[in-house]
Amino acid sequence: MSAVVIAVCRRPEYGFRKPAQPFIRLRVGHGVDGDAHGGATVKHRARVAKDPTQPNLRQVHLIHAELHDELRAKGFVVAPGEMGENVTTRGIDLLALPAGTLLRLGDEAVLEVTGLRNPCSQLDNFQPGLMAAVLDRDERGNLVRKAGIMSVVVRGGEIRLGDAIHVELPAGPHMPLAVV
Prior knowledge:
This protein has helices spanning 45-50, 65-73, 122-126, 130-133, and strands at 4-9, 20-21, 23-27, 31-32, 60-64, 87-90, 102-105, 109-116, 135-137, 143-145, 149-155, 157-160, 165-168. By secondary structure, the chain is α+β, with helices and mostly antiparallel strands.
């Protein structure tokens, strides 16, 4: 199965859920046009409170639809954008990508993977128990965060439902994703 965009979402004001759109436009050094989390410096409220001059490594949030499938099987009701993501994908193991991976979406846009999303308590405000459902432990007992990945825009363009996603891994050695 090839990797594909199954939804694109944005929200101009701060809020948890992001409504699906026919397309979104990505801008270099900014993120999603018209999204509250776009910009060169951090926009997440908790991060702004610590240091508003930090670079925004969370310009575009991606979640794999396979996570939605897993959550539905556990009784949660989730759809694209409802966990705050800008791009919902299918057919790519986002969590296994190394830092620095380039994702080419559609004909123009390119994202660079910066790290993992750290799930927060807003997930439980959306649906009780959801935060625990997106956390797991590997065979060594290490915490596994499954709530998607974060990225920055390195080449702008429009992306829409059905766009292909092509992966370009960085030169080795590969660094595993950490929380950004």
